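hey m, so remember when u said the tokens were messed up on ur end? i reran from scratch. heres the input so u can diff it against urs
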Amino acid sequence: MKSNILITSNFSSDTGCAWKFFFRLFNHISNSLQERGVGICLSFARVVEPVTILDEQIPFQVFTFDPLNLSMKGAINLLGNIRRLGITHCYLTDYGSWHWLYPLMRLCGVKRIIMHSHVSVAAPYPPPPEKGIKKILKTMLNNSKLFSADSVYVCSEFVKDRLVRKACCPEGKITVITHGIDIDRFLCTENDRRERKKVVIFTVARATRHKGIHVLIEAARTLRDKYHLTDFIVEYGGDGPDMEEFRRLVEAYNLGGHFVFLGALDDTKEKTCNADIVVVPSIWGDAYPLSVIEAMSAGKPVIATDVGGIPEEIGNQECGVLIKPGDSDALAEQLFIMISDASRRARIGENARKRAEKLFTEKRFYDQVVSNLKKDLELNRS
């Protein structure tokens, strides 16, 4: 009997820049599994036709399923599509290590379930382990064949640690597969840098407070008022619900000459390469942000917070600078040091690129995902 795999996402099929990373991954998985005779099915929280994330030669089925707004009707629709399309395997994005839907999916014909987690959380550091009755119940569910995923992939040790501590997922089920990108696309040339008299500080993130943009605005004020720097500019790419708050803060501090709002960016390469310093000021548990990998691939010195999976990306102080989250004074101090020392910027940037070449390549990432999928979905037996 032919195997058909469902590849799910909890976002729209026309979602922008940040999610194209997942679309490229889905395309590579689909290419690799189709070569083994596996049929491809896709689900999105919202389907916007035409769906063009896969190569043209890959036939696929698509339907709508929104796991973040799960209703009885949505669950019935999912199970109906599993039966209708003969889905035998599932590769799920950011579900739980266990879920009440899993036994129903298995009853409808699903043999193997893989969950791949890239979830960021509010807490910037690892939580205390679960205790008492919650730990007992979660452990039972995670050890149940019916209710739990067969294998769990995570993008960082931070995510793994949280799943073990809070979800009580057995370590033996979890495989860490860190992100990878096309690092050579971020190779910068002298032509990428515009002639200017000011040091350019670049940051890109969704406009929400947990990304720490307000902390960077505070740090920019400190650079001007405490360190008396005027030859710098912060370029911020992003949009989101807290954008107006950030604009008001810049206006209140009279930082218009030092802080530029770029809006949402379809591609971050140009602005990353044009920067002298990249800042990632997140104040929550960022799982493994691509902005860090992109900056390091571009050979840029990164100043980032020591939250979530970011320390795993940076590695050591020779490849980037880590500060505590929410500390605008510490951020301003490190920016001042970096702005004042061009040779330090160059040295850290060079080390960052070397680390990217070793750890962050797209090929390594795709090969790890696909080889683990073939093994865990038991597709190597044919």
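this time it looks ok to me. DSSP finds 13 helices and 13 strands in the chain. if urs says something different then somethings off w ur setup not the seq
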